[in-house]
Design a protein that fits this description.
Elements lengths: L2 H19 L8 H11 L6 E5 L12 E2 L9 E2 L3 E4 L13 E4 L4 E4 L11 E4 L3 E4 L2 E4 L9 E2 L10 E3 L7 H9 L4 E5 L3 E6 L4 E2 L10 E2 L2 H12 L2 E4 L7 H14 L2 E5 L10 H8 E6 L3 E2 L5 E5 L2 E6 L3 H19 L9 E6 L3 E2 L5 E11 L2 E6 L7 H6 L2 E5 L5 E2 L4 E6 L3 H4 L2 E6 L3 H13 L4 E4 L3 H10 L5 E4 L11 H7 L5 E15 L10 H6 L4 E4 L4 H12 L13 E2 L2 H10 L4 E5 H6 L3 E15 H5 L1 H10 L2 H8 L4 E2 L6 E2 L1
Parallel strand pairs: 13-16, 13-17, 14-15, 17-21, 19-24, 22-25, 29-30, 29-31, 33-34, 33-35
Antiparallel strand pairs: 1-12, 2-11, 3-10, 4-6, 4-7, 5-9, 8-9, 18-20, 20-21, 22-28, 23-27, 24-25, 24-26, 26-28, 31-36, 32-35, 32-36, 32-37, 32-38
């Protein structure tokens, strides 16, 4: 008898395992996926009564009509004296007219009801006090300086239509019309289920391999911004049964279920199977990058969305598929972003068949808008923080070349971007500090960085696609920095090369330097895992020079082809244990609690056009870098000398 239950358990397990093999990621175009989803699901449209004073941002559930007039009485529009106009006729400079207080006139303040028997107000500055009354030098006209009943709002008048999102001024007119409570559309209830065994609450102490759950907070914030109410469930580990239980409860409690992560095709990605088990999957996989592993379906007749775990993918998918649901439920049109034509400062490549969404930094350079792509990884949340706009590359395109004009969707108004300065070239922490101080001193200016490497920075200046570029290129033949390369690459151009700082380059190694790294020969002989900078970076050229001096080849270095675009990226790799050594600057090592083996001091300059150097913005940059207080802050980072900051080289 005991064999039968075991067989059933085994059969059930085999069925589950078989189901787990049914992994499918489709490649449906985004618009098709959107249409399929929106055609099958709906959020309920409920109403509730709330206080007008607490209704900002809510949406009216019906047309609202005034209960009372405003003003409710004829009222004085000025401080002065109420009069009967016909009694003032004949008054002039040559024939002043005296009015008896209480009989012919009565003092009123702005907003006071007009006393019975009077039909005009004379401003206080147009009268002369006399014994027992006032004297006037000009007649009043009927209803002069009087607000008639209902001048602002008339009882019964339509104040606001249905499905109107309430603004501050709307609250005023509602209260003026006697509406202290009103019916609004209830906020759709979304339930967010964060998943992943590696997730921990943001406030919990971080351990190796743990990831703070910040996605839930961001997703909830987006939902609230769009008009929904969001509830975040406790983190569910990678356990199908527990996720299924949480999803069923969420569908019972909310109008919309959002499951974070587990949406792809890995062995612990259960989201698609849970939605299918509890309801129906319409779409699994959208032809976009980022955002491909998105799941669209329903649980118990309610919309269910499985968002990718990578932050950028999750946020973009949320906007594509959830925002239209909320807008429709609240009777609102989806907000459209401002569009802008901009010149590409760098080539942007894409893959056929995939709609790619690239975050862009935008600046106004020499009379035109220039856009540079930011980090494109789906997990690079900072790319959204730094982004000024979005470039959407259609699936039939392989991308765009540098210098092409493209259309962007803007995250910020174009008018603001005219004050956005673009920094290209080599990465340095001083540039980030410079951006901070610039913003503190002039809120109309911002500084965005694109980490192109020193060679890329020179090219950007040469092409008029950046305002300034950080460069630190050592020329072995002359022993000089930067100028030999600039003269070779941009001959005859009117440029200015300004020193920013001298900085120490060295080996970034684990605490205690356990491998005893002193030079490039140690890295080669001990087969240490190395993390390099990208092609064209001054730090990479320095490393190549060191290899040449030591008689070594790039093939002698394990990890030579592995690239990071910033010094912080190099330090992060060493701190994570994926590399044993990298070449970089002291502050980056300090940021991760790593050791630093000094190697050489190099000159780090800012390259800019002569016209920008002479501009108000250029002068603002120079004032900051030559300010002793700023220099002190830089040198406190460690490994910097500002002894020549602001010096012009030519």
């Amino acid at each position: 008898m005991g064999i039968v239950p075991e067989r059933k358990v085994k059969d059930k397990k085999e069925k589950q395992e078989s189901a787990m093999q049914k992994i499918y990621l489709s490649n449906i175009p985004r618009q098709e996926a959107r249409q399929k989803f929106l055609a099958r699901v709906e959020l309920p449209r409920r109403r509730e009564i709330i206080k007008t004073s607490a209704s900002l941002g809510r949406v009216t559930a019906e047309a609202i009509f005034a209960r009372l007039s405003m003003p409710g009485d004829h009222a004085a529009a000025m401080d002065g004296f109420a009069v009967l106009a016909e009694r003032t006729f004949g008054a002039s400079d040559q024939n002043p007219l005296r009015l008896a207080l209480g009989e012919d006139c009565q003092p009123v303040d702005t907003g006071d009801p007009l006393p019975p028997g009077f039909d005009a107000v004379i401003k206080v500055e147009d009268v002369q006090p006399v014994s027992g009354g006032i004297e006037i030098l000009a007649p009043a006209t009927p209803w002069q300086h009087v607000r008639p009943v209902g001048e602002d709002v008339v009882a019964g008048e339509l104040l606001l239509p249905a499905y109107h999102r309430l603004r501050p001024q709307d609250l005023g007119v509602l209260l003026a019309g006697g509406i202290t409570e009103l019916p609004v559309l209830a906020k759709p209830k979304a339930v967010i289920i964060p998943t992943g065994t590696e997730l921990i609450p943001p406030e919990a102490e971080r351990r190796r391999g743990s990831i703070p759950d910040f996605n839930s907070t961001v997703v909830a914030a987006y939902l609230q911004e769009w008009g929904a109410a969001a509830t975040i469930y406790p983190i569910v580990p990678d356990d199908r049964a527990r996720l299924e239980e949480a999803a069923a409860r969420a569908a019972a409690e909310g109008d919309l279920v959002i499951i974070l992560a587990g949406s792809s095709a890995g062995r612990e990605d259960y989201t698609v199977h849970v939605i299918e088990a509890l309801g129906e999957v319409f779409v699994h996989g959208v032809a976009t990058r980022p955002g491909k592993p998105t799941i669209l379906g329903q649980i118990a007749g309610k919309p269910a969305v499985g968002l990718p775990g990578y932050p950028v993918s999750a946020y973009l998918s949320l906007e594509w598929f959830v925002r239209p649901l909320i807008c429709r439920a609240l009777g609102q049109a989806e907000p459209a972003r401002e569009r802008l034509a901009a010149t590409l400062g760098r080539r942007v490549v894409s893959e056929l068949g995939v709609e790619e969404h690239v975050r862009m930094a935008v600046g106004y350079v020499d009379g035109r808008f220039v856009a540079n792509p930011l980090e494109r990884g789906a997990g690079v949340t900072m790319s959204l923080v730094r982004a000024d706009g979005l470039l959407i590359i259609p699936p039939e395109s392989l991308g765009y070349e540098r210098g092409e004009t493209v259309e962007l969707e803007l995250y910020r108004p174009a008018a603001e971007l005219r004050g956005n300065l673009l920094a290209a070239g080599s990465h340095d922490l001083i540039i980030d500090l410079l951006a901070t101080v610039l913003r503190e001193q002039d809120t109309g200016l911002t500084l965005s960085s694109a980490h192109l490497g020193s060679m890329g920075g020179i090219a950007a200046i040469g092409n008029g696609q950046a305002h300034l570029a950080g460069v630190h290129l050592f020329d072995p033949e002359s022993g000089d920095y930067n100028l030999p390369y600039i003269r070779k690459l941009l001959p005859g151009r009117e440029l200015c090369l300004v020193n920013l700082a001298y900085r120490m380059q060295g080996w970034i190694v684990p605490p205690g330097n356990p491998d005893g790294v002193k030079g490039v020969a140690d890295i080669a002989s001990k087969k240490l895992s190395f993390v390099n900078r990208q092609k064209g970076a001054g730090t990479r050229l320095l490393f190549d020079y060191l290899l040449d001096q030591a008689g070594l080849d790039s093939s002698d270095i394990y990890g030579y082809e592995r690239e990071e675009h910033t010094h912080l990226g190099v330090a992060a790799s060493v701190a994570a244990g994926s590399a044993r050594v990298g070449l970089g600057i002291l502050p980056a090592a300090r940021a991760f609690g790593l050791d630093f083996v000094p190697l050489c001091e190099e000159r780090y300059d800012l390259l800019m056009s002569a016209s920008f150097y002479r501009s108000a913005e250029g002068k603002a940059i120079l004032e900051i870098i030559t300010n002793p207080a700023f220099q002190k802050r830089v040198e406190a980072l460690g490994g910097y000398s500002m002894r020549d900051a602001g010096k012009l080289f030519n």
